[in-house]
């Protein structure tokens, strides 16, 4: 049921996100990344390990990640070292790397999963002809986060998108490179996305000697 903002009934309604933490989610540290990997390996969750590794490397939004097809990631019998897709939100192409850890976990998952190049990498558990939903992906991330003792409200699917970008930025200070990797159309969006502030900028500048 929909109310007008001017209706008396609307004045007492509680917003759907009341009490929820809003704003950017934290990126994971390298220690937290390995803690989650250890948890997934220990629990023998091969699909989730592949999903986690690919999310970190690809830096894709959740809607693009869950819609990846096997053909996007494989070339013959091998997992590609680089892949490219068209982003749903922007309609712009973006390329991403697939590092060895991610290639290994994807190979193990696809060996179990089977399927053709037209099939989704991560199928829905309800209908295997469809892809994993973004809602289910978000629930999985919450589960991983809580499994290593972190607060789910501080992290989310965007934490995975931000993680490698944040690590690269801290190591290089190259915002233009991060813009390209994230597929942002404007560098201002990348600055906001990374949460770059004057303190962070000065810290990078202090590390650079001329």
Describe this structure in words.
Helix content is 51%, strand content 7%. With 210 residues, it is mostly helical. The protein has a domain at 27-157: Intergrase catalytic core (hpI Integrase, Chain A, Orthogonal Bundle), CATH 1.10.443.10. The strands form two sheets. The protein has a two-stranded antiparallel sheet. A two-stranded antiparallel ribbon has the order 3-4. A hairpin with a 6-residue loop joins β3 and β4 (93-97). α3 (46-58) packs across α8 and α9 crosses α10. The longest helix is centred in the C-terminal third of the chain and has 16 residues, at 157-172. It is globular.
Key terms for this structure?
single chain, 210 residues, mainly alpha, hpI Integrase, Chain A, two-stranded antiparallel ribbon, two-stranded antiparallel sheet, 7% strand
Please identify which CATH superfamily of the domain at 27-157 we are dealing with: Intergrase catalytic core
The side-by-side strand order for the widest beta sheet comes to 1-2
Low-confidence stretches: none
CATH class of the domain at 27-157: Mainly Alpha
Pfam families: Phage_integrase
Keywords: DNA integration, DNA recombination, DNA-binding
Family: Belongs to the 'phage' integrase family.
Protein name: Tyrosine-type recombinase/integrase
